[in-house]
Design goal:
About 40% of the residues lie in helices and about 25% in strands. The protein is of the alpha+beta class. It has 3 domains: about 45 residues, no CATH class; about 260 residues, Beta-galactosidase, Chain A, domain 5 (Distorted Sandwich), CATH 2.70.98.90; about 210 residues, no CATH class. The strands form 7 sheets. A 9-stranded antiparallel beta sheet has the order 12-13-14-15-24-21-20-17-18, with no helix packed on it. A hairpin with a 5-residue loop joins β7 and β8. α9 packs across α15 and α12 runs antiparallel to α13.
Length: about 625
């Protein structure tokens, strides 16, 4: 092969290679999709609660199905329904002078509730729940037996104003689900009407009930996490029945098959209530869990239930009512009167815990009317509590006077009791029985009884317990200051520390409350003084002398973390009791009283049946002792 031939072959090869490279770098032709096939690349979608509980996907009315909604997959079929297509989140605000409620177009439910008239520990408006704390979900089981969760569906805002809004979950060109909210003027109640139009295009026509899921975390609003949690829980009302509650310090679940008219997620001073007065909630599962101290939350609550709902008709409506507000007794009573049917009161006022049976009766018909009357003229709650204490002391004075008189009788008879003790000395059983018999005969003949001083004090206990229930739960005291106490609804710490004292911090906390200290010191002084004025106890009762001191110390540990208004009340009450006792001592003529008792001895007195049984028991016991002694001598 000559030189020219080789050069020509190389040139031809170079041209072919260059042409090939030029063709590869140019634009490539694309295939045109056919009319009957559409390919959609689904981006990552958030996993719905239904997927977490075992549902393997969703299904709309058009039959499109995604088997793995958490992955990026290719799906052949129509595009996602509009209500499942991700879009920017939109917030709708309902607002009046008392409540600001924010709704989200994702889920169509409340996501934030703020109360204008109340502040938290940071002096900011109280938020019953914040974004991410609350969800309302209707799991819709479709014709294909798939679950569509409204909490993850996107709603269209059809209309909105400061007092009303309609959010629509558009299912197809005909069918839709509306959540219509209505906020009343200057009110804490929000109406929610669930309206379905042609839902039978999505849901089975034979369905009779619809599931509902409601969850909420309660932010810590008060200074003491412990006592806020103690008064927090889930309250619920049976139609024509009582209000029950679920409370726990850890986690608890309660299943209630009976119908419930309302369910409340109750904090110490605020509640979120879902009311279904028309049909009630059935197959209820209530779950309450304590949040960790320091987490910023107190409790987590959830409700899973069903309510009657049919889609046979073209339009389906279910009216519900929300209450987002304070546990104000008078306010809830007014709401109850407006909402309640004549034969089925809602008893919303039971969200304010006033105790059970007689204690609630005392608070409802005595304490609250007195407080309402005084607060109409006064704004200083320290003065209101002082005047209320005086009124209660005046009402109970007949019982108090009888108790003081009984103590005075025992005191003037003390020399005669000492003579009986000297007459029958010794610690053997026979001597003790003789002393007891002679002492009881003396009391009976003189018209005195140790028990007559105890009974009036026992009659006062229901009032003390009722007030123990009232002060820590009354929202009227929240944020009210008096003297050094910045908030009478919580403790008034004068000394605080950051470390824990083993076995003590769990009861005492990490502070000292001044009103609690004053209450304890006053009680100890009063106890010591009254006991020094009383006759000496018998040998067997000597140990009882320490009981009042032990009780005072126990109350100190109990009250140190409680409402300062409660400690202030007991402190003032004890001071008034001391003044009453001193005035009684100063005005009592003990010589005249002793003369009356001596005159009573001359009067014939019929023995009571109780005294007859006591003396008969003593006689039999003495007889058995004599027989035992005779056998011992043999």
């Amino acid at each position: 092969m000559d030189k020219n031939t080789i050069i020509g072959a190389l040139l031809i090869g170079a041209v072919l290679i260059g042409f090939t490279l030029f063709q590869q770098s140019g634009p490539q032709p694309q295939a045109t999709p056919t009319a009957d096939t559409t390919q959609v690349v689904a981006q990552s979608q958030p996993t719905s609660p239904a997927t977490e509980t075992g549902a393997d996907g969703w299904s709309g009315a058009d039959g499109c199905t995604i088997d793995h909604p958490g992955d990026s997959v290719s799906v052949v079929g129509p595009v996602l329904p509009a209500y499942l297509q991700e879009r920017p989140e939109q917030t709708v605000v309902l607002k009046n002078k008392k409540l600001t409620l924010k709704l989200s177009n994702k889920g169509g439910s409340p996501v934030e509730a703020t109360l204008a008239d109340y502040t938290d520990q940071q002096k900011k408006p109280v938020q019953l729940f914040r974004r991410g704390d609350a969800t309302l979900n209707l799991p819709l089981r479709t014709l294909e037996n798939k679950i569509v969760n409204t909490s993850t569906a996107y709603f269209d805002v059809i209309s909105q104003s400061d007092s009303a809004a309609v959010l629509r979950m558009q299912i197809d060109s005909v069918a839709y689900l509306d959540f219509a909210y209505t906020l009343r003027p200057d009110d804490y109640r929000v109406g929610l009407t669930i309206t379905g139009h042609e839902l039978r295009r999505l849901l089975p026509v034979n369905m009779t009930t619809q599931d509902v899921e409601w969850r909420q975390r309660m932010p810590q609003q008060e200074q003491s996490w412990k006592f806020e949690g103690q008064y927090s829980g889930i309250y619920y009302h049976f139609p024509k029945g009582d209000v029950e509650r679920l409370e726990t310090s850890s986690e608890s679940t309660d299943e209630i098959k009976e119908s419930l008219q309302w369910v409340a997620f109750k904090d110490k001073y605020f509640s979120s209530v879902l009311i279904n007065q028309r049909t009630g909630f059935q197959n209820n599962t209530l779950t309450l869990q304590a949040e960790k101290e320091g987490s910023g939350y107190v409790r987590s609550c959830s409700l899973a239930a069903t309510f009657p709902m049919s889609v046979k008709e073209e339009v389906t409506q279910v009216p519900l009512t929300f209450f987002f507000g304070p546990n104000d007794y008078e306010l809830l009573q007014r709401y109850d009167a407006e909402l309640a049917q004549a034969d089925a009161p809602l008893q919303l006022d039971h969200l304010v815990y006033l105790g059970m049976s007689v204690f609630r009766w005392i608070n409802k018909y005595l304490i609250i009317p007195i407080v309402t009357f005084l607060s109409g003229f006064l704004s200083n709650w320290g003065i209101i509590i002082l005047l209320m204490t005086l009124i209660i002391k005046i009402l109970l004075y007949p019982f108090t006077h009888k108790s003081y008189l009984s103590q005075a009788k025992m005191r003037v008879l003390k020399p005669q009791i000492d003579e009986i003790n000297a007459k029958y000395p010794g610690k053997d059983q026979e001597a003790m029985m003789k002393r007891q018999t002679e002492t009881m005969n003396l009391y009976r003949s003189a018209g005195a009884s140790p028990m007559s001083g105890c009974l009036p004090m026992l009659l006062q206990m229901p009032f003390l317990i009722a007030l123990y229930m009232y002060f820590p739960t009354s929202i009227l005291l929240r944020g009210q200051s008096f003297l050094w106490a910045q908030d009478l609804s919580t403790y008034d710490a004068i000394i605080s520390w950051d470390f824990n004292i083993p076995l003590i911090s769990s009861f005492l906390g990490n502070h000292l409350s001044l009103f609690c200290v004053l209450m304890t010191v006053t009680n100890v002084i009063y106890t010591r003084y009254t006991m020094s004025q009383s006759p000496s106890s018998a040998e067997g009762m000597a140990g009882m002398k320490m009981m009042p001191y032990i009780m005072s110390i126990m109350f100190f540990f109990i009250f140190n973390q409680n409402a300062s208004a409660l400690s202030y009340y007991y402190f003032v009450s004890t001071l008034i009791t001391i003044l009453q006792y001193l005035s009684f001592r100063w005005t009592l003529n003990e010589e005249k009283l002793l003369h009356e008792l001596e005159e009573n001895k001359k009067k014939p007195r019929k023995k009571s049946k109780w005294m007859q049984r006591l003396e008969e028991a003593q006689r039999l016991q003495q007889e058995q002792q004599r027989k035992a002694q005779k056998k011992g001598k043999r």
